[in-house]
Amino acid sequence: MMKRVFFCIFSILLVASMTHAAPDLAEQEAAKAYEKARACYNNLMLNESKQKIRANWETCIGQFAAIARDYAETEKGPDALYTEAKLYRLLAGVSHNKEDATEAYNLYNSFTKHYRKSRYNDDALYQMATIKLYTFGDERKAKRLLIQIIRWDPDGDRVRDAKNLLADIRAGKVKAPPQESLKPQGAILQKTPKPINEIATVTPPVSAATPSPEKKTPKF
Fold first, then answer.
1. Are 178 and 194 in contact (CB under 8 A)?
2. Nearest 5°: CA angle at 175, between 51 and 98?
3. What is the pLDDT of residues 26-73, one digit of tens each?
């Protein structure tokens, strides 16, 4: 009888320990994959030649997409999805392909739906608004998204940007989007009060290693 009780207790503890270990393992795997994806991102941002080849963008995008898909519930899940959207937005600035901008918009939209409590929710909404405004000229949709930011979190760090852009739209004074430099980041997600919209031509830092020339013709 005692052996049976002991066996039952042991089985319960074993199952409990395995259940606890599974999420920890997923977090470790996600973190490892994220570091690899971030290295791809940083390498791309440092190399202007690589930025001219669509396949290089797609390689990095694919790595973040895999994390967002396979580790959606881990700490790195939302980071990966947000960065996947960001890469498509930056790619759209290089390719001038509206399909890339649409993909970025859809991914940001997915982020706002799946990670409603994320502190980057307002950033995603703001990027959606700028895509609608600057790429598609849809002022009505842009205004709705900007108003959503203001109502969602009146004290958020994107509220000022949203109010300013909303005022410009209503006054008919929409200017060209601020330029964004491509550069590597220690942490890909960084809260900043400055609006991030389209991208500028990159001048790699002097300290960066000279990139090997690529002879391929860009295919955007």
1. yes
2. 40
3. 999 999 999 999 999 999 999 999 999 999 999 999 999 999 999 999
The CA-CA-CA angle for residues 162, 193, 97, to 5°, reads 65
User: pTM for the whole thing?
Assistant: 0.74
Per-domain residue ranges for the chain? Answer: 29-171
Model pLDDT for residues 127-170, shown as the tens digit of each residue: 999 999 999 999 999 999 999 999 988 999 999 999 999 999 99
Cα–Cα distance list, 166 to 110, 147, 148 (Å): 23, 8, 11
CATH number of 29-171: 1.25.40.10
Cα 71 to Cα 18, 58, 63, 207, distances in angstroms: 18, 19, 12, 35
